[in-house]
Design a protein that fits this description.
Blueprint: H1 2-28, H2 40-50, E1 53-65, E2 68-79, E3 84-90, E4 96-101, E5 105-110, E6 115-120, H3 131-134, H4 138-141, H5 143-146, E7 160-170, E8 173-185, E9 192-203, E10 209-216, E11 224-235
């Protein structure tokens, strides 16, 4: 009887300990490392690759110099079958960059030049070649995950050494916070440039990305250089065909 009592007491103690640990973790925004899966990023990649449709609205906040800020906005619509794609990036200064796609081709248009370019299948990825630079990386962050087999170059293409840094609530959604290093690699030479620290917040429930912060490796003393990209994502929404139509304005 004594041994049974001891075992029961131990079991109760262990249960109480884990309940208290869980409650404290939720209150202070973290969980013990043992309870955090180590494959969050891969599960998130798989989630995007399996989506039949996707939509988001987002904001890019670019902080630079000693105190300067620029705020840009964007919208994304995606349908896997039949293929439909639309990305609309609007800069604070009035500039605009649009990429859209249909089953036959991808297209892009940049307000600064007023020129539309068409990229018919199968060589259609050229529509995204200059998009990263013109959109502060926003055009390819999620797009490269949605079109996982297309080998598009985005922030997550070369995201390395990622570790789970805890959990945090973003706009009411509990997220895993991952910290790693991103860089741009030139295919012809393999040379890596624009190496930066990247922190990613992945929704614990939907596995969709809600925020990304990128900070270059080298920053001048007294200066800031930070790009924060925030997303309001939707998994598998119902999207009307009109969402993927775009007619460039007349010059």
């Amino acid at each position: 009887m004594c041994q049974n009592s001891v075992r029961v007491n131990r079991a109760i103690f262990v249960l109480i300990f884990f309940v208290i640990t869980s409650v404290v973790g939720e209150v202070f925004g973290f969980r013990a490392a043992i309870n955090v899966p180590d494959d969050i990023l891969e599960r998130s990649r798989a989630k995007y690759a399996a989506l039949s449709s996707y939509a988001d609205t987002g904001v890019v906040l670019y902080e630079f110099g000693t105190s300067s800020k620029e705020r840009q906005t964007f919208t994304t619509y995606f349908s896997r079958a039949p293929r439909g794609f639309y990305f609309d990036f609007k800069k604070e200064n009035g500039d605009r960059y649009v990429i859209w796609g249909d089953p036959q081709a991808f297209h892009n248009w940049w307000k600064t030049t007023g020129v539309r370019y068409d990229y018919p299948n199968p060589n259609n990825t050229g529509a995204f070649t200059t998009a990263d630079a013109q959109t502060f990386g926003a055009a390819l962050k999620i797009t490269a995950l949605l079109y996982a087999k297309a080998a598009l170059q985005g922030s997550f293409t070369n995201f390395a050494d990622a570790v789970v840094d805890g959990t945090e609530t973003i706009d009411g959604h509990r997220c895993y916070r991952l910290v790693g290093t991103a860089g741009d690699i030139y295919g012809a030479t393999g040379h890596e440039s624009n190496v930066r620290k990247m922190t990613v917040w992945i929704d614990a429930d939907s596995l969709l990305i809600r925020k990304v912060v990128e900070i270059p490796k080298d920053i001048l003393p007294g200066h800031i250089d930070r790009i924060t990209t925030s997303f309001e994502p939707q998994a598998n929404p119902t999207l009307d065909e009109s969402r993927f139509k775009f007619t460039p304005p007349s010059s």
